[in-house]
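Narrative summary of target 7.
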Amino acid sequence: MQADLQLLGRAVKQAQYRQHRALDSALAAVGTTLAQWDALRAISRTPGASARELAGDTFQTEQAFGTLVGRLAAQHLVDRRPGHGRRIEHHLTPAGERVLEAGHRVADEVLAECFGGLPEVDRVMLLELLRRLNGAG
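Modeled conformation, tokenized:
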């Protein structure tokens, strides 16, 4: 049996879409969006990173990330500081740390539900397959 690649691509996109909608809806309860929480996660993973680096990590253009981080700075969740040359470094504020942590709790619950239909052994296999597909395995 051969997999229909268009059906496979659509199934991956459908799972991603369902997960993103559920996350975005649930994250609203802690005062953030999926895009904002993802930006906070990226900044937390690499404090001091530039907008270019963070845009790549969050699958956004530099312009879109710049707009997003501007909103996060206006909400006092992110601090932008001068770096070497023209580089602007990004750091979480204490308020940003709190929103990030609340988002982690929400995401853990939502993702447990999203992947709840798969036994643990299948989740491990799915993760391994996706890592290989994305070149990290």
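The first strand starts at residue 78 and ends at 82.
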